[in-house]
Design goal:
about 300 residues, alpha+beta, Immunoglobulin-like, 2 domains, five-stranded mixed β-sheet
Length: about 300
């Protein structure tokens, strides 16, 4: 019996060492561990500071879960080897084990509490809105397109604010929302008809757009320039799948020049060309449809503004 036990202990020790080594590899690899396994299922390519906070929370939670899993798997294999059957003699029977019961009661509570704490912090940070954002854009959704109104301040209680420029999407021209990098951008959402949803996948964030007096708001700070497709993520009717737009992130100087061109009366396409940008959307294209003024509410004709 003693010889068998002496053989089991080295094996259990090796398994425990392997488990600890795996946990250390995960910890020491830090943020790179997410990239190594494609973010553990988290979408890649977030372009805002808020998306990076959510990514860090996801990776941290997954690493914590793997550490707990390695520890539990190690205990399971250790018990399988240490307490395997050794003959027909009945093993010593115990009614309870206070340290073990304390461990499996308190440990889950601590793990859940820590995860809840960090989730609440990140969620509060992502939903936080500032008193004086650098840029305010009113997102106005309608069946089945978008209008973006650049405002000079936050909407007051009467839902009125000064619009200094706007971009209206049409059947023929995908609307382009131009925004600066490195600045706080506030979105104020409203709908003319039914519930829509403002979604730019690369923001890793979306929020519903409601009709009436309900105005959803959120803020982001974009870190990367580029062109990013935007969509309606709420089933809103016949042409829901065609309700696309493009977010064009540019430098702060280019944004100022774009907005100045719009204020001078230029169209969105002309203003984009004035800052060296493509005048038409590159991430999505208009869908060929049979929409007319009669079946599209009278907004099918015309070009983007």
């Amino acid at each position: 019996m003693s010889a068998r036990r002496s053989k089991a202990r080295p094996i259990a020790g090796r398994l425990a060492s392997l488990g600890l080594a795996g946990a250390l590899v995960l910890l020491l690899s830090g943020c790179d561990v997410g990239s190594a396994v494609d973010g553990f299922g988290w979408p890649q390519g977030g372009i805002t500071r808020q998306s990076q906070r959510m990514y860090d929370l996801w990776i941290g939670s997954t690493v914590a879960a793997l550490i707990v899993g390695v520890f539990v798997w190690g205990l399971i294999f250790w018990c399988v080897i240490r307490y395997r059957k050794r003959g027909n003699a009945l093993p010593v029977q115990t009614r309870f084990n206070m340290p073990m019961e304390f461990l499996y009661t308190i440990a889950p509570i601590l793990v859940v509490s820590v995860l809840f704490y960090y989730t609440a912090i990140v969620q509060t940070d992502v939903d936080k809105v500032s008193a004086n954002p650098d840029v305010v854009v009113e997102v106005e959704a309608f069946k089945w397109n978008w209008q973006f109104n650049y405002q000079d301040g936050i909407t007051d209680d009467d839902h009125t604010a000064n619009t200094v420029a706007s971009t209206l999407g049409t059947t023929e021209v995908i609307p382009i929302l131009v925004l600066p990098t490195g600045r706080t951008i506030r979105f104020e959402e409203t709908s003319r008809d039914v519930i829509h949803s403002f979604w730019v996948p690369d923001l890793l964030f979306k929020r519903d757009v409601f009709p009436g007096n309900v105005r959803n708001v959120f803020e982001v700070t974009i870190d990367q320039t580029g062109a990013y497709v935007g969509r309606c993520a709420e089933l809103c009717g016949t042409y829901h799948s065609m309700m696309n737009f493009e977010l064009r992130a540019v430098s702060g100087d280019d944004y100022d020049r774009f907005l100045a061109a719009k204020r001078d009366g230029q169209s969105t396409q002309q203003a984009l060309e004035s800052i060296g940008q493509d005048p038409l959307a590159s991430t999505t294209t208009p869908f060929p449809t049979d929409r007319t003024d009669q079946n599209f509410g009278g907004t099918a004709a015309g070009s983007g503004s």
